[in-house]
Amino acid sequence: MADLEGKTLLVTGANGFVGRHLLTALGERNTAHLHATRLGTVTDVNPQQGEQIIHWHALDITDRQQTASLIAAIRPHVVFHLAAQSHIPTSFADPALTWQVNLHGTLNLLTALQATCPAATIIHVGSSDMYGAGFHDVAPVTEQTPLMPLNPYAASKAAADLAAFQFSATSSLKVIRARPFNHSGPGQDRGFVLPSFAAQIAEIERGLLQPTLKVGDLSAERDFLHVADVVDAYITMAVHADRIESGAAFNIASGTPTSIQSLLDRFLQASNCNISTQTDPARLRPTDILRVCGDSRLLQATTGWQPKRSLATLVNDLLNYWRAQVATVPAT
């Protein structure tokens, strides 16, 4: 596949944080049809992205028949599979739901594609969290690092990753397994660490909060990317699918771990206020993974993908997004 021009594309879970960014990027391409799914109704989503019309569909991916009917109706050439239950606390509270969505939903999709679109390409989006205990080794993890998940979310994603590989061996589908590391950007929920910093700073600047930023553990190191670079990687995989062996797995990472403390320092330096910090026990998360770092040289060598956005750009984009969000809130 030289490009996505003239192709019918499907993005599952398209109303999520990454899905919205992916739709924006795909909307800039001359595809034949761009389809997107979400849970619930589709009356509150934008039907157009740039010049591209988006065909929205309500889909419960755990419903085998509904999934099969949708795939048979639209017959996509390329599927970007983002739909997931990705909230880790929820995965502990309701592991059955998490496994149902992440594993069985993926099986429903793969089975439907095999039945009606056997030549389709699927970009299966996993998670670096699948490596789990593999991060105890200080070396950057490669695609050969064993999957040793430490929570129900990661375990269900690892199972789905293996299921996708099985379909690459037993069907004619082109299966590409993406394993993105930490990524953030505009539109991510403030329950995540970097949007939390940005949102609090924006509220402090607006006079909505006292100038004390509440934080959790700042010592951990994570491998952060801008969401736009991750979206670029998904699209690059699809564009270069012809040169990728079915079943191949690719880490999407910067290769550089950064401490949460150093990222916080960047946020504070970018603010026009004098802000102190305070540890909030409610924000502390039990973890024994102190350092996360991924090796993405395989993806770079295979497709030429490289991350283009700096951490400074990520910080500025998050701050500007949250400043705009609170701009209309009356200051106290």
Describe what this molecule looks like in 3D.
Helices cover 39% and strands 17% of the residues. The chain has helices spanning 17-26, 64-74, 88-93, 95-116, 152-170, 193-205, 227-239, 260-270, 297-303, 311-326; strands at residues 8-12, 33-38, 48-49, 52-58, 78-81, 121-125, 174-180, 183-184, 212-215, 221-222, 225-226, 249-252, 258-259, 276-279. The longest helix has 22 residues, at 95-116. It is built from 10 helices and 14 strands. Helix 1 (17-26) crosses helix 7 and helix 6 packs parallel to helix 8. It folds into 2 domains: 8-183 and 225-252, 3-Layer(aba) Sandwich (Rossmann fold); 187-222 and 256-292 and 309-326, UDP-galactose 4-epimerase, domain 1 (Alpha-Beta Complex). The chain has an 8-stranded mixed β-sheet with strand order 3-4-2-1-5-6-7-12, with helices on both faces.
In short:
The protein is an alpha/beta fold and 332 residues long. Helix content is 39%, strand content 17%. The strands form four sheets. Strands 3-4-2-1-5-6-7-12 form an eight-stranded mixed sheet, sandwiched between helices.
